[in-house]
Design a protein that fits this description.
232 residues; alpha/beta; Rossmann fold; 8 helices; 7 strands; 47% helix; 13% strand; globular; binds zinc ion
Length: 232
């Protein structure tokens, strides 16, 4: 398929923004989620609702949205012991990385996505990785993803492109991008229906969305939303 994309869609703010970006850009868009024993597995249950809302929002998006895939990568929880996959407190480690870091997660995600895209005849992968406003995860860096793209294409004799539209945006700019892509309606949809909190907390609806309000993911999201509002 020409001009087609497979979006790594977790149901979070970033991947929902990426999905809207892809729907404005490609003729055919499929989505992929991963079940890896994450504490915030609630994000998996938000995905179908978000997809329905996006379809309801724009008829042209509805006609472009194809199959939704969910892959079981529970082996991640079996091979790594991190705060994202087990019930321990979120802390900073001696190596400067928070213990929410799951070693190899994005490498595994993108390699799995590439194999699926290969089977589906899809040319581009789209992911919400970002190295501007992030937790320092080395597998979110542009250099890592450029190298992975090369390794994947060498290893599969393919011409896949890994697109990362949020790479150089801070969180406030990501909200702004959502507004540009789908207006206030999309911002509101992302605010109320996407899930970011590492602890899987939905609870009350804060100004910036649902979440515990205290974990690193909630803090980033809340700060970015406040900055975005200040520029309006
Ligand atoms: Zn949280």
């Amino acid at each position: 398929m020409n001009n087609s994309a497979l979006v790594l869609f977790s149901g979070g703010q970033d991947s929902t923004t990426c999905l809207a970006w892809a729907l404005n850009r490609y003729d055919h868009v499929e989505t992929l989620g991963f079940d890896y024993g994450q504490r915030h597995a609630i994000e998996l249950t938000m995905r179908p609702q978000l997809l329905d809302s996006l379809r309801a929002m724009r008829p042209d998006w509805k006609s472009k949205l194809g199959q939704d895939h969910v892959l079981d990568l529970s082996l991640l929880a079996a091979i790594s012991d991190t705060a994202l996959t087990s019930e321990v407190a979120i802390t900073m480690q001696e190596n400067g990385l928070p213990n929410t870091f799951v070693p190899g997660r994005n490498l595994l995600f993108l390699t799995s996505a590439a194999a699926l895209a290969f089977r589906r005849g899809i040319s581009d992968l789209v992911g919400g990785m970002c190295e501007t406003d992030y937790s320092g995860y080395p597998d979110c860096r542009d250099e890592t993803l450029k190298s992975l793209q090369q390794a994947i294409n060498l290893g599969m004799a393919s011409k896949l492109t890994i697109q990362t539209p949020l790479m150089w945006l801070n969180k406030a700019q990501s909200w702004q991008l959502a507004a540009t892509l789908g207006g206030e309606e999309l911002v509101e949809l992302i605010r109320t229906e996407s899930h970011t909190c590492y602890l899987g907390e939905r609870g009350v609806l804060h100004a910036w969305g649902h979440g515990c309000g205290a974990c690193p993911a909630c803090e980033l999201r809340a700060r970015g939303y406040a900055e975005y509002l200040a520029t309006q």
